[in-house]
Amino acid sequence: MAKNLVVIGTQWGDEGKGKIVDWLTDHAEGVVRFQGGHNAGHTLVIGQGSNQKEYKLNLVPSGIIRKNVDCFIGNGVVLDIEHLLHEIKTLENDGIEVKSRLFVSPGCPLILKHHVALDQAREAKREAKIGTTGKGIGPAYEDKVARRSLRVYDLLNPDSFKKKLFEVMDYHNFVLQHYLKQDPIDVNQQFDLSMAHAEKIKPYLADV
């Protein structure tokens, strides 16, 4: 039976989990990211001296640096597709093969612009700041728990996605305008952006 290892932290952040995972990938066939979002940061330094190279990852599992390791993003991860695509492009520009080795669950909840707006507006309104990164992670998980998340697989059906998006954003825009005194997010702009992302994320979708 194959051995599976799980790396967990004590939820303080910046605990060095990425470095431990990188060390373990010398003997691994795959690395799975199972939760969190792009608020996490994993800095890896590979090589020595003049051959030393630094990689900064937020969403892509750190095993991607090892050419024989496949990487998986599970549906416990809240996904900002725009950030993921940027991260993929950066890795590819460094000569790392990503497309054949990265697999994303269609069940990942999406982080959309209203999540970011809510996150930042709430933090600005608080007297005692909690130190959020303002990237929409918390509000995206709220939607997941409330069973109103839009997920990656919703992007594959534009008509259904648009209907769900309008319903969800109507709710969140009401909160933004009437409780947080912020401008609403343009739902049509969000729809167009999401559809552009849909075509680019398709090659990475798999049963994770």
Q: According to CATH, what is the topology of the largest domain?
A: Adenylosuccinate Synthetase, Chain A, domain 1
Low-confidence stretches: none
Number of strands: 5
- The proportion of residues forming helix, as a percent range, comes to 25-40%
Helix segment tally: 6
Category by helix and strand content: alpha/beta
Known CATH architecture of the largest domain: 3-Layer(aba) Sandwich
- What profile does the largest beta sheet have? 3 strands, parallel
**Spatial strand order of the main sheet:** 1-4-5
CATH superfamily of the largest domain: Adenylosuccinate Synthetase, subunit A, domain 1
Q: What is the general shape? A: globular
**Element order, helices and strands?**
HEEEEHEHHHH
Number of domains: 2
Blueprint (SSEs and pairs):
Elements lengths: L16 H8 L5 E4 L8 E5 L6 E5 L12 E4 L7 H13 L8 E3 L8 H13 L11 H9 L12 H21 L8 H15 L7
Parallel strand pairs: 1-4, 4-5
Antiparallel strand pairs: 2-3
Helix pairs in contact: 3-4, 3-5
Description:
The chain has a 3-stranded parallel β-sheet, with no helix packed on it. It contains 6 helices and 5 strands. With 208 residues, it is an alpha/beta fold. A hairpin with a 6-residue loop joins β2 (42-46) and β3 (53-57). The chain has 2 domains: 17-107, Adenylosuccinate Synthetase, Chain A, domain 1 (3-Layer(aba) Sandwich), CATH 3.40.440.10; 113-202, Adenylosuccinate Synthetase, subunit A, domain 2 (Orthogonal Bundle), CATH 1.10.300. The two termini are 20 Å apart. The model has no long low-confidence stretch (mean pLDDT 90).
